[in-house]
Write a structure and sequence with these properties.
This protein is α+β, with helices and mostly antiparallel strands and about 300 residues long. The protein folds into 3 domains: about 180 residues, Jelly Rolls (Sandwich); about 45 residues; about 60 residues, Arc Repressor Mutant, subunit A, CATH 1.10.10. The strands form 2 sheets. It has a 6-stranded antiparallel beta sheet. A 4-stranded antiparallel beta sheet has the order 3-8-5-6, covered by helices on one side. The longest helix is centred in the middle third of the chain and has 21 residues. It contains 12 helices and 10 strands. Helix content is about 50%, strand content about 20%.
């Protein structure tokens, strides 16, 4: 199954005219395919609840203090929105990195879980809302069929709900079902923190009041700090800082904004403080980092 899935993805990328390097968006909302012929520098983004699959090569993703590495026919499941740095660690022209990201639909997950004769029991693990696991044959078969449907929009429109339900079924009945089910448990700590994160993301350029976030999560201040740090591997202020730095990096790389302007645009009052935080996060000064990123993109 692994070889047939990799072939299906490679054929799709070639048919779409996707080159040796780059992200290929698909006609299926929330499904993206990527192929890279070389290792990459750390690239920042905010991960949504999603299934991130490596078919060939290897990748490492850093969420705060936690680093997750996964190789061929393994996946990273993210259950809550988290800013992160990801990089491809194994890739070459002869054996390029090939990966798939699929956004998870909480509504379908919730629907499927309600129909299970024996719904999964939430695990007692209080760790970060991310885990790595091997891609099962059943999940690989679902993804392969989804990729093949991309060439048939009429069939995709009708059949994708059934395939998404099947993907959710295998996730909710697999070895990590106790973690997956936490995405849709009503009034869970994860759901409450997710509500606070939604507010924080919408207002990340503004000063944040932790008391307000805790109130949105319907938690005491100490409980909110504990659960937020557990699920994201960072404090609310660190989370906000990561959002600011990622957006500033995007502005400088994609929109040719200078360092000072980017700093002020994302909410910093001091460009020098911005530069210090930037170096701590990305390991190099903003101007040098942007030049390196642009040269890689070119």
């Amino acid at each position: 199954m692994s070889s047939s899935l990799a072939r299906a993805v490679t054929c799709y990328l070639d048919a779409q005219g996707c080159g040796a390097n780059g992200l290929c968006t698909t006609s299926f909302d929330g499904l993206n395919v990527i192929r890279l012929s070389e290792k990459t520098p750390p690239s920042g983004m905010v991960y949504k609840p999603s299934l991130c699959i490596t078919l060939q090569g290897a990748k490492a993703v850093e969420f705060g203090d936690a680093i997750f590495e996964y190789g061929a026919m393994a996946f990273l499941l993210v259950s809550i929105e988290i800013p992160a740095l990801g990089r491809v660690t194994e890739a070459s022209p002869e054996c390029p990195y090939i990966g798939i990201t699929l956004d998870l639909d909480a509504g379908i997950l919730r629907e499927v879980m309600s129909e299970l004769a024996q719904p999964p029991v939430p695990s007692n693990d209080q760790g970060i809302g991310v885990f790595v696991a091997d891609l099962s044959e059943d999940l690989a078969d679902c993804i392969r069929r989804l990729i093949r449907l991309l060439d048939n929009p009429a069939a995709l429109r009708i059949l994708w709900p059934a395939i998404m339900r099947e993907i959710c079924f295998w996730l909710l009945t697999g070895p990590h079902a106790g973690e997956v089910c936490k995405l849709v448990l009503p009034d869970s700590h994860m759901q409450r923190v997710a509500e606070a994160i939604h507010l924080l993301r919408a207002n990340f350029t503004k000063p944040v009041r932790i008391e307000h976030l805790a109130a949105v999560a319907r938690m005491s201040l100490s409980s909110f700090h504990q659960h937020f740090k557990t699920l994201t591997s960072m404090t609310p202020l660190q989370y906000q800082k990561q959002l600011r730095l990622l957006e500033a990096r995007r502005l400088m790389v994609s929109e040719d904004v200078n360092v000072s302007h980017a700093a002020f645009e994302v909410g910093y009052e001091s460009p020098s403080q911005f530069s210090r935080d930037y170096v701590r996060r990305f390991g190099t000064a903003p101007k040098r980092d942007v030049m390196e990123l642009r040269s890689f993109i070119i």
